[in-house]
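Possible regression after last week's pipeline update?

I re-ran a chain I had predicted before the update to compare outputs. Posting the input and the new output here so someone can diff against the archived version. Not blocking, just want to make sure nothing changed silently.
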Amino acid sequence: MLDYRTATVSGFDILVGRNQSGNEEITFGIAHKDDLWMHADGDTAGSHVVVRSGGRRVPDDVVERAAAYAARYSKGKNAPFVRVFVCRAGDVVKPKRAPVGTVGTPRRGRVVRVKPEGFG
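New output (post-update):
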């Protein structure tokens, strides 16, 4: 079984980590630098989400759907709205000696506010 879930929205593949090793795999093993990376904002634990862009601009509706997955598969899943941080995968760094699935604060990005929504 894969350590991540997949969905396709408007022709864009979305990868959602199931656990720390899945988060690590999609963030540092699969994502290309121009793909989008998402995570519940702040210290909220949750899945890493990657939108495979293939060098294309990702439409807002795809960003919102992927962010909704990041919200749903986070500790904030029961909140009416969750803030989700969005950036280029190339802006995500791993601190030296950090545990599996851990990232440092990305250098730049933006925050979107979405309702948590899972697959289905």
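Follow-up from reviewer: compared with the archived run. The chain has a mean pLDDT of 91. Marking as no regression found.
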